[in-house]
Structures are given as C-alpha cells and as structure tokens.
Amino acid sequence: MFNRVRYDAHYREHYRRVRGLCAYLLGTEQDADDAAQEVFARGLKAFAKFRRGDDFTPWINTIARNHCVDRLRDRQRWARILSEATDADDLEDPAESPVGRLISAHTATAVEQALRSLPDPYRLSLVLAYYGDASYDDIAETLETTRNHVGVLLLRAKQRLRSALESQEAIA
Amino acid sequence: MTEQEPMCSNECPPLTLCAAYADGALSATEAAAFEQTLERCATCRRRVAALSAENRALSAALAVSEFATQQTTTPAMEGNRSSLLTTIGWLVAAAAPINAAVLSIGAAVRLPGWLSWMVPDAAGYGAELAFGAAFDAFLPEWSMIDMIQHPYVITAVAILVVAAILWRVRRPSESTALVVAMSLGALLLLPSPDSHALDFRRSDDRIVVGADEVIEDTVVLISDSVLIEGTVTGDLVAIGDRVVIRGTVNGSLITFADNIDIEGVIGGSLVQAGSSASLTGATVQGNWLGAGETLTLNDASRINGNALLAAARVEMDGRIERDLFSATEHLAVNGQIGGNLNAAAERVTLNDGTLIGGDLNVRADPESVSGIDRVSIAGTTAIGADAEDDERSSSAAGGLVLGVVKLLAALLTGWLLFRVVPALERLTPGSGNEGLITLAIGLAVLVGAPIAALIIMLTLIGAPLGIALFALWVAFGYVASIVTARWIGGLVLGNTGRSSLLLLLTGLVLVAFVTAIPFLGDALDVVATLLGLGMLGRWAFDDRREFA
Which of A99, A138, A122 shows the shortest CA–CA distance to B61? Predict the structure, then answer.
C-alpha cells in the first residue's frame, strides 16, 4: 500500500517527461499516451525490484526505451540500416559542417520534424543519447549493435538530421 | 559544398573517439589519455568543440520541442490491479467478519475511560449525533444507536473519507469508482437490513395517500403538494412545496419542502429541510434531524431519539427523550428533554414547563438566557461563551501556566527526539496533492491504529501487543504535533542557519496560538496532528530519501 503511494508520487512527477520520451522514440504523438501508460504499468509490476534511494529517472527510462523499441522493432530493416550507418568511412568532419549552428538556427518544432523523418535507428540513437540520457552501452543494447558502432551511428544520425533540416529549408 | 578533407591525419585519432569523448562515453583513463592528444592537436580540439556544440544544441532543441512539452495533463494510472483504493476496498470487505467478532466479544473488554468511545455502548455524543441520524434515516431497520457506536462503522466511514480524498487527488477513473462503490456496498450490506421495493411517484399538482391506503414500499413522492393520510410501510421521501403527514410512516421520513406539517407517526427518523416544519401531535420514534427557518414541536409531540436542529427559530414545547442539540438564533423551550440540552443560540427562553433530565449547556451570552430559574434541571448547568469548555473557562492565569509548562515539555521532548532521530527534523508533508495524501495517511493512522490494537487485544494472546500498540499510538499523537510544529517553524524562519531549538520553539508557539482560536483552533489542532501522523507514517513506511 505504501509502495503504491510512493509509486504514484513518481508517476505524477515523471509522467509527462516519460510521455515525451515515448513520443520521441516512437516518432509520433499518437501512441505516446498509450505507450507511457504501458511503461508505468510495467514499472509498477517491477517496482518491488526498484531499490529505495536509487534514481527513478534512469530506471523508468530503461523501461520506456525497451517498451518503445519493442513496439517499433523491424529486425531486417534495422539490420540493413545499421550495417550502412556503422560504416566508419567517409564521415564528414563536424568542424567543417557544424550541425550545432544549424540546429540552433531552427525552431525546436523544425528539429522535431526533421527528427521524425529519420529512420528508426537514427532517431532512436539521437533521442536516447540526447534526451533519454542513455549511455553508449544502453543504446548498443537497445539497438542490438556494438558499443563501437554507436559512436558512428550517432555521427551519421547527426548528418542525416542536418540534411533533413537543409531539405526543410530548401522546401521553405 | 564543403571540401572533403581527409578525416584523420596521421597523428589524429579517429573521429569516433572525438565523438565518444564529447558524448561522455569514454572511461576515465581513456578520457585522460585523449585529453593529452587534445592538448597537442588543434584539429581534434576543433572537432570536439563542434561536436559538443552539436550535442548541446540538440539536447536543448529536444528538451523544448512540442513532443516533450505537450500540454498534457497527467492522466490517472491505468491497469493498477493493486491500487491503494483496491486495498481499501479489501479492508472494508474484510472488516465484515471483524465486525462480528467485535460485536460478540467487544463487551467483555474494559478499556480506560479515555478510550471508552471505542467500546460499543459508550460512543461519544458527537459521533452519535453525526452518524446516528444520517444512518438511521437511510437504514431504519438497524438499531441505529448500537450500530453507530460500533468502532467498525466509524472506521469504515473514515476509510471512505480517505478513499474520497484519494479519489479526488487521483482523478476518477472507472476502476477507482468501482472500488469506492464496492466499498460502500460492502459497508451497507454488512448487517443486510430488510429491503423494500422502491416506488416512485411524481405529479405536478398533488399526491394524496388516502386514509385507507397502504403503500407496502419505500416510496419517493415528488409533487407540489404531498398529503399522507394512510400508511407507508417503508421509508418515505417526499419533495414538494408543502408536505403534510397525518398518517403513519413506518420507516423514516426524509422530506424537503417549504412547509412541512407532521401530525402522524414516524417509525424511524425524521430528516427534514424546509423553511418551516411543525410537529403537531406527532411521534417520531428515531431522531429528528431538522434544518429550516422555523421548527416547532407542540406539546402533544414526542421525539424518542435525539433532536439535532439548525434553524433561525426553534420552539420546543413537546418531549424529546434523549438529547436536544440546537444551533439557533432563538430557542424557546417549554417541554421536557430526557437527556442534555446543548444549545448555541443568540437568545434562549426557558418557560415554566421545562424539564431537563441531563445537563444544560448553553453557548450564549448569559444575559440573553431567560427563565433559567423557572426550570428544573437534573444535571449541571453551564451558560456562557465557553459553556462547554470547562477546561478553558477555568482560571486564565492557571491556564497560562499550564500552557507554558506544556510548551516547555513539548520543547524538551522535541529536542530529545530530534537528537535521537535527526531524520524526523526534516520531515515535510509535501506540497499540493502530496500534502493531501499525507493528511489522508495521518487520518488512517489516527483511526486505524487504535482499531488494530483493539482487534489484536480481542485475540487474547495479543493483549500485550495491543496495549503496546495503544501506547505507541498515544506517543505518536504527541510526537506528531511536535513534528508538525518543527516543520512550521522551518517554514516560517527558513531551515538554513537557524538553531533547530529556535525553529521548534517558533513552531510550538505558533501552533499554541493558532489552536487557541475558538472553534477554528480545534479543527486546526486536528489538522496539525493529522499532518504530523501522516509525515511520521510516511517516514516509517515510505521512501526516506524523499524527505532528506
């Protein structure tokens, strides 16, 4: 009973953030509420294993990550994208083509749109690394790839994001 | 657009290493080694700077984008099989056998006087009035007074109050509604009173139940004018402009009407609200719970239970077997009261024919009470602004000394307590809904602990354990107000850089002043204790980190 009161407090505190994470991970607003509810329902079942004093954020993030990835996973397509994406040849030098300034020049909505247009593995890696506070190991585990590949994947994902933003500009 | 440079010169590590460094993904030793490279290589420094800027921009954009900041309100949690409310539902349901046990063995237990309210047949006056009339009205087949004196019922009501608070806090969902409904059902079905079929009649103009007519049902009548000359065997609910009862209602009468005239017999209780109600030669077997502008009970009328009356003017010329509790502007009595007369009134007129079998407590200006010397009072008489509060009306100086002694005792206890358990000093009830939950837990502790102790005691071998729990509960109650006072002190002065003794003293003094306010003070005292109990309860069972 007291566990439940405790969990409810966490729920109220974290729901909106977790819902945001789900929306990013799934790439759509539509199923975000549903996914977030499911994440918290799974969390409640596993809450007995959550140690008092631990940080709730990474704990529930892991559940959200696993749940959303389960919803999306398309093994064949992902494997193909990952094998292309993790080829470390001809990466562009970030110092020459800074995505940073480009992102700063766009509105958050534009960035979100560009992000949404990326194939799942790219979007997932970016969201996990820069919104979900996941480590390379977490991302590698989630996407079923290796830690070394995650670095390359992130660099590629940023490049894809840049092209998406540039093409938005071109349309506008 | 950009000229493709070779990614890495001979000295430069791969770009992925720069990225991993910027992403904070290197181990401490790897990072230290890479920093040495950075010192030597301007290219790598530029890359790391660019990557870090990218990361920051991306994090910032993600954090403020619509996805993350969608103005969604947090919905109630779904799929909660083991929710708090379900637990409460189970508790209420499980209380049925406990109820039976308490009934059968309860009388054998003798408790000290200050716990007497828990023992059947010794319930407090307040609970009797508050619960009695309401329950009696809806469940007339029960022997009302026996039932409401039952600790279980009080517990169940308290549990439902807690459930209602939680329901409010958590926003209603189907499952919580279901559990609350089931809890209520379990409570009401416990002694399963005889049920009546429900008859519902409605007319724009007038409903008359003739002298030879018998309604074998509980009936709801809605019309401009309702006249009952015959008999209703169940309860009668009558709503209209004018309601006249000349016949007999075997159950309770619940009526909302502008003008209510009762000349017949009510087998249960009378619950009534309307601008005027007059009982002329009427008999009410249960309690009379009345509200209106003018309430009159003539000399041929009789209430066999208690009367709880709130009206601008009350004229009581008949007979009330038990207590009369009246909150009025003007109370005029010329009849007999078997029990106590408790009145809060601006003016009280007692006439020659008045007989009071119990005590007279009038909360009013003594000069506005007339005829006190003409009436016969079996018990004690107390008249004044604080008539009911003997303790406070005792010598003011003595009260002050006692207050200071109490304050010092609390200060000493608190100081010792916080030395032994420093964590207690940092308890807070939480803000917003958290605070409400703390309050609800406080209520659960306040009501639940003594009930649990009593139940443990009833199992004979559990007697020492039960007594220990009682003792703990009393201690908790005392500590609770100290913890609350400490919290308030911190709230007022700020927690940093102050001596904890000063904070505690400030809180205790504030609480002492606030709880001394008439009427409101008592309520605030209860809230303070509940908050403290809630904080202690949460601290004992909850995630302690949150309060650290």
Answer: A99
Query: Which residue type does B412 have?
Result: L
Relative to beta strand B381-384, strand B248-249 is unpaired
Nearest Cα of chain B lies from the Cα of A75 at a distance, in angstroms, of 25
Helix (H, G, I), strand (E, B) or coil at B121: coil
Give the length of chain A. 172
Asked if B41 and B47 count as a contact pair (C-beta separation under 8 A), the reply is no
Q: Please classify residue A47 by burial: count the beta carbons closer than 10 Å to its beta carbon, then call 0-12 exposed, 13-18 middle and 19+ buried.
A: middle
Note whether B78 contacts A: Cβ–Cβ < 8 A. Answer: yes
Percent of chain B predicted with pLDDT > 70: 64
The band of B183, judged by pLDDT with boundaries at 50, 70 and 90, is low
- As a whole number, mean pLDDT of residues B317-337 equals 90
Q: Say if residue B296's pLDDT is above 90.
A: yes
Q: Which amino acid is at B374?
A: R
- pLDDT surpasses 90 at B261: yes
Residue A130 and residue B62: Cβ atoms within 8 Å? yes
Residue A98 is predicted with a pLDDT of 64
Helix (H, G, I), strand (E, B) or coil at B3: coil
Q: Is B294 left (phi over 0), alpha (psi -120 to 50) or beta?
A: beta
CB B34 within 8 A of CB B65: no
Mean pLDDT value across chain B: 72
Spatial CA neighbour of B339 closest among B375, B300, B373, B378: B378
Q: What is the helix (H) or strand (E) element at residue B227, kind and residue range? A: strand B225-228
Task: Report the alpha-carbon distance of residue B401 to residue B349 in Å, rounded.
Answer: 38
Q: What angle do CA B395, B400, B406 make, to 5 degrees?
A: 125
* A109–B2 C-beta distance less than 8 A: no
The confidence score (pLDDT) of residue B247 equals 92
- In this structure, what token pair is assigned to residue A81? 């994208």
DSSP B217: S
Is B289 in contact with B308 (CB distance < 8 Å)? yes
How would residue B177 be classed by pLDDT, with cut points 50, 70 and 90?
low
Which pLDDT score, from 0 to 100, does residue B292 have? 81
ipTM of the complex: 0.85
Dmax of chain B from CA atoms? Answer: 117
In the three-class reduction of DSSP (H, G, I as helix; E, B as strand; rest coil), residue B342 is classed as strand
DSSP code of residue A132: S
Comparing C-alpha atoms, which of B107, B92, B185, B94 is closest to residue B146? B107
Chain B (144-183) residues lying within 8 Å, Cβ to Cβ, of chain A: 170
Tokens 């140690």 belong to residue? A51
* CA-based nearest residue to A64, from A31, A30, A40, A33: A40
User: Which residues does B19 contact at the CB level (< 8 Å), separation at least 6?
Assistant: A94, A151, A154, A155, B51
DSSP B125-156: HHHHHHHHHHHHHH-TTS-HHHHHT-HHHHHH
User: Is B64 near chain A, with CB under 8 Å?
Assistant: yes
Amino acid at position B306, single letter: N
Of A19, A94, A147, the CB nearest to B50: A94
Range of A167-171, B171-175, B197-201, B281-285 with top mean pLDDT: B281-285
Q: How large is the average pLDDT for residues B40-66?
A: 82
Q: Report d(CA B274, CA B254) in Å as an integer.
A: 11
The C-alpha atoms of residue B228 and residue B241 are separated, in whole angstroms, by 14
**A95 and B49: CB-CB below 8 Å?**
yes
User: Residue B157: which of B190, B125, B110, B113 has the closest Cα?
Assistant: B190
The predicted model scores a pTM of 0.39
DSSP classification of residue B545: G
